[in-house]
Amino acid sequence: MRFSDLRPCPFLLLADSALLWLLQGTLGALLPPGLPGLWLEGTLRLGGLWWLLKVGGLLGLVGTLLPPLCLGTPLFLSLRALVPGALSAPPVRVASAPWSWLLAGYGAAWLSWAMWALLSSPGAQERKQGQENNTELMWRLLKLSWPDLPYLVAAFCFLIVAVLGETFIPYYSGHVIDILRGDFDPDAFANAIFFMCLFSIGRDHGGEVSCLLPHQPLISPTPRPLLQALLLDIQNALAKAGQVVREAVGGLQTVRSFGAEAQEIRLYKEALERCRQLWWRRDLECALYLLFQRMVHLGMQVLMLNCGVQQILAGDLTQGGLLSFLLYEEDMGHYVQTLVYMCGDMLSNVGAAEKVFQYLDRKPKLPPPGTLAPPTLRGLVEFQDVSFAYPNRPDQPVLKGLTFTLRPGQMTALVGPNGSGKSTVAALLQNLYQPTGGRLLLDGKPISEYEHCYLHRQVTSVGQEPVLFSGSVRDNIAYGLKSCSDEKVMAAAQAANAHGFIQELEHGLNTDVGEKGKQLAAGQKQRLAIARALVRDPRVLILDEATSALDVQCEQALQDWKSHGDRTVLVIAHRLQTVQSADQVLVLRQGELREHSELMEGQDLYSRLVQQLLED
User: What's a single GO MF annotation on this record (predicted)?
Assistant: First the structure.
C-alpha cells in the first residue's frame, strides 16, 4: 500500500460526515423503521460516497473500503436479529447512533480493507485495470451477437416464464401445507394445486433454455487473486510445454543429428511435471473452497431452521410460511449463484478476446494501398537517397542515403556482409516497409501508389529458404493466382528447370509436396519457388540467394530466362559466377553503398572478389 492511496481519506471523512448529517435530519425521517430503514440508509450512504469520490477523481483504492464501511452495520444487526433472544433488540440507525457505533464501523471497515490489501497478490492493481478493460471487451462481444437477437429475445421470454413459475411454486406449496393442517377448504386447496401445476409447466419449459447456460459445478469464477494468479501460471506452463513439443517436432532432424532425444524428453517431462504441480494446487484450492462454501451454507441453514422454530413457537410464523421461506431461500440461492457464475465467467473468459480486439484495433503504419495499375510497366526502379530503420529500433538506421537505379534489361548484383541491409532493400522493393527517408520509385511513381495485387504480380521475390505450402505442385506454383492453366504452370517450371523432376513424380503436377515441402529436396523446393515467381511473368525479379541450392544446369536455365525480354533483375548473392554475369555490382556495407576505390583499399572478402573479377 502506498501513501498516495491514503490521500482521499480526509475527503472521505468530510463527505461521510455531511451525508450522516443529512440522514439525521429530514431525510432520515423519511426512512422506514427497523432493518429495512437501516439497509436503505446504508445503501444511500454507499451511493453518495461512491458518487462524490468518483466525481472528485479520488475513488482509487478507497473504493474497496466503502462497502464494508456503509453496509457493515446493517449486516451485523441483521445477523444479530437471527440469534434467538435478540429478536426484540431494536436496530440502531447509524446517523442517530452514538459515536461508538460510527467508530466501530470505521474500525471494522479499515481492518477488512487492510486484510484485503495484505492477502491480495502482487499486481492486484494492474489486474483491476485489466478487469475494467474486460468489461469494455464484454460489451464489444455482446454487440457481435446482434444477428442472434430474435433467438435471444425468445430465450429470455422463456426464462421470464421460468422465473415466474419458480417464484410462485414455493408460495402455493406453503399454502397447501397450511390448508392441510388447518380447516380444510376444498376450493382453496384446488386453487393452490392448480396454480402449482400451471407454474410447474412454465418452469419446465423455461428450463429447456436455462439448461443451456454454462454451469461451473466446483467453484465460483468470481475474481479471487490467488486463483487468478494460479490459472495464469497454468496457462503459461501449458504454453511452455506446447512450445517444447513444437520445437522438438519441427526440428526433428536436428534433434536426431545431435543425438538430443533424451534431452528433449527430459525437457518435456519437466514441463509436464510443472503443469501437474499447478493442477494439483488448483484442485486443492477448489476442494478447500468448496468445503468452506458447503460449511457456510450448512451453518446458515441450521441457523435459519433454529430461528424458524423459535418464531413458530412464538406464534409469529406458520409451518407453511417456514416451508415457503426455505424453498424461496433455496431457489434464490441457486439463481444468485447461477448469476454469479455467468457474470464471473463472462468477465474472466472475455480476456481471451483481448488479443483479437488488439489486432482489430491496430492502425496500419503503412499507407493505404494505391490504385495505380497501368497496362504496361517498364520496371525502372530508382532509389533516391533512401534511408530506413525498423520500427522496433528507430534509432538504429539499417540503410543510409541509398541512391542507385535498377534498369530494365539489366541484372544488378547486390553484395555485402551479413547485416549490411541487402534483404532490407528487397523488402522495401516489395513495399513490405516504407522508407523513413528519401523516395523509392517504380517507373517514376512512388511504389506505395500501386495497387497491392498488381504490384506483387509485377514485382516478385524468391528467398534463400523458400516457403512451400501443403498441397500439390500445381497449387504451389500457381499460388496467389485466381486462374492459371497447366500450360502456363509447366512453362514456368521449364524456365526454372523444374519440369524434369516434376514429370518423374508419381502424380506429376498433382503430387502433394507435404507440409512446408518436406517431401522435396532443397534444390527442388528452390526450383518450385522460382517457378512460382516466373509464372507471373514479372517485370522486376528479386533473387535473394535463390540460386544457392541449384546446380549449374538449373542456374544456366535461369540465366537464359533473364536474358529474354527487358526485365529488371536484382540478385543478392555471394557467388562469384553470379557477380560475373551481372551488368551492375552494388556493394553494401553498414547500410551504405561503397565506391570502387573504397573496396580496393580494403582487405576483406569483397575487395578480393573485385580484384579477382578484374584479373579475369
Answer: ATP binding
Place of cell 444477428: 147
pTM of the model: 0.54
Q: What is the enclosing helix (H) or strand (E) of 400?
A: strand 399-406
- pLDDT tens per residue, range 482-495: 788 888 888 888 88
Specify whether the CB–CB gap between 406 and 540 falls below 8 A: yes
Mind giving me the DSSP string for 130-171?
HHHHHHHHHHHHHHHTGGGHHHHHHHHHHHHHHHHHHHHHHH
Count the Cβ atoms, other than its own, within 10 Å of residue 203. Answer: 20
* Beta-bridge partner residues of 533: none
Residues 100 and 189 in one domain: no
Torsion of CA 64, 67, 73, 74, to 10 degrees: -160
In 3D, which of 492, 390, 386 has the Cα closest to residue 442?
386
The answer as to whether 365 is a domain residue is no
Which region, left, alpha or beta, applies to residue 18 given φ > 0 means left and ψ of -120 to 50 means alpha? alpha
221 and 341 Cβ atoms separated by less than 8 Å:
yes
Which positions ≥6 away from 187 have C-beta within 8 Å? none
Q: Which of 311, 343, 360 is the last residue of a domain?
A: 360
Domain hosting 290: range is 146-360
H or E element that contains 385: strand 381-388
